[in-house]
Amino acid sequence: MVKKLLSALFLLGTFMAAAQNLHTQSNAASIENESDATTGWTGLGVITSDNTEAQTGNFAIRVESTANNGRTLQYTFNATVGVDYTIQIWAKQGPQVTNNNDPAFANWSGFSGFSTTTINNTDWVEYVFNVTATATNPIIRVYTSPYQFRFTAGNTVIIDSVSITADGSDTENPSAVSDLSSSNTTDTTTDLSWSASTDNVGVTNYEVFQDGVSIANTGTTTNFNVTGLSPSTGYNFTVFAEDAAGNTSAVSNTETVNTLADSQAPSAIADLSSSNTTETTTDLSW
């Protein structure tokens, strides 16, 4: 019995270790080990730690193009050939000197299932790649600009909150939402909001339930406007957090909403008319 228990604990420990984020270095884009550094990331662009544009925490990694074809930022990790990986990277455009520039995730090597993806937003966006390793040291690459602008300095990309996990290895549930609340309730609507859940890799979706029935998936947005409610009625709302591996949090606190009474009178009819009138009948319409 003791041997079985020890074996079970050993396997559990091994499995949990495998579930760790493979973006292991302590740097500005790390989820678990953030620091004011760029350790592990290399390339031909000017790579720095940025403390003004963080998506989470205090720092992000910034890459800026040079005038001599320095436009790349890259990262490699130890992979197992044939294993599927989920790679999640938050990214945004920084300052640009080239009009209509198209920075992108491009030219990844050692993977199948990857396709070039443009970074076309100046706000933070989470990019999720589901790929299969074809080499033991695959390479993730970010380009500040396409080939035709390779001699243009000053185009920038900023990345943060990088996670790399082998599919099936992440078994940790996100934390439960504990502060679901409502506001601006009317006779037919209410606004729900909550604080972000935490996860060892990253939350990818929140699912909203009304009286036990799913009504919305909000992605990473932590608020939702509920419509179509009935006046003078009570409703119970809850939220679950989910990560990319399909792990789901425990249920949130229950927020009970009582809609207001319907106090708005119908509009007055303004076009009442009659037709086909006889000595004893008439047809009314409006």
TrEMBL record:
Keywords: Signal. InterPro entries: FN3_dom, FN3_sf, Galactose-bd-like_sf, Ig-like_fold. Residues 168-191 are annotated as: Disordered. It holds the Pfam family fn3. Residues 1-19 form the signal peptide. Residues 176-262 form the Fibronectin type-III domain. PROSITE patterns: FN3. This is Fibronectin type-III domain-containing protein. It comes from Flagellimonas aquimarina.
